[in-house]
Specification:
Elements lengths: L7 E6 L2 E6 L3 E5 L4 E2 L8 E7 L2 E7 H6 L10 E7 L2 E7 L1 E6 L15 E7 L2 E6 L1 H9 L5
Parallel strand pairs: 6-8
Antiparallel strand pairs: 1-2, 1-9, 3-7, 4-5, 5-6, 7-8, 10-11
């Protein structure tokens, strides 16, 4: 996957900042009420209804860490389109928009879900490969 040319939405998830491709971002909103459902992926908090559509609510920080959702919910959600399917990513905050495509991930960086990085004052910020991350959610069967 190549970096997005349209830029990235910078969000805080799991205590860190990451970028989500604007090419795949539909909207940022409050996730509303969530209903638990069985799922093999521990980062799936449940499902939520957004504009009349039921979609999975996935805690992005937990998905990146390979862990279960924290007890405390995030303050925002980002609806993204992944291979024709909409998914709601729970985040702590949507912070800003980054123009451009970033730079290649350094060979010595441990950023398995990054398609590129942005250089910021705080260091390297991973720009996520949402398609690869989404495959963890959309391709796992529900028990």
């Amino acid at each position: 996957m190549t970096p997005a040319q349209g830029g990235y939405l910078l969000v805080r998830a799991g205590g860190r900042s990451v970028g989500l491709s604007l090419d795949q971002v539909i909207e940022v909103l409050d996730p509303g009420e969530t209903f638990p459902v069985p799922a093999l992926e521990p980062a799936v908090r449940g499902v939520t209804t957004i504009r009349g559509r039921i979609m999975p609510l996935v805690h992005l920080g937990a998905l990146l860490d390979g862990s279960a959702c924290p007890a405390e919910r995030g303050n925002a959600a980002v609806v993204v389109e992944l291979s024709g399917r909409r998914v709601c990513l729970e985040v702590e905050a949507a912070e800003s928009v980054l123009s451009g495509s970033g730079v290649p991930v350094p060979a010595d960086a441990a950023m398995p879900w990054a398609v590129a990085v942005a250089r910021t004052e705080a260091g390297l910020l991973p720009l996520l490969d949402l398609t690869a991350l989404g495959a963890r959610i959309t391709e796992r069967p529900v028990p």
